[in-house]
Amino acid sequence: MTMSTTGGGRRRPPTIHDVAREAGVSRGTVSRVLNGGHYVSPAAQEAVNAAIRKTGYVVNRHARSLITGRSDSVGFLLTEPQEKFFEDPNFNVLLRGCTSALAAHDIPLLLMIAGTPDERRRITRYITAGHVDGVLLVSSHSGDPVAAELREAGVPLVSCGKPIGPGSSASKVSYVAADDRDGARDMVRHLLSLGRRRVATVAGPLDLPGGVDRLAGYREVLAEAGLPVDEDLIVSGDYSRAGGEAAAARLLDRAPDFDAVFVASDLMAQGVMSALQKAGRRVPEDVAVGGFDDSPAALTTEPALTTIRQPWDRISAEMVRVLLAQIGGEDPAAVILPTELVRRESA
Question: What is the pTM of this model?
Answer without folding.
Answer: 0.75
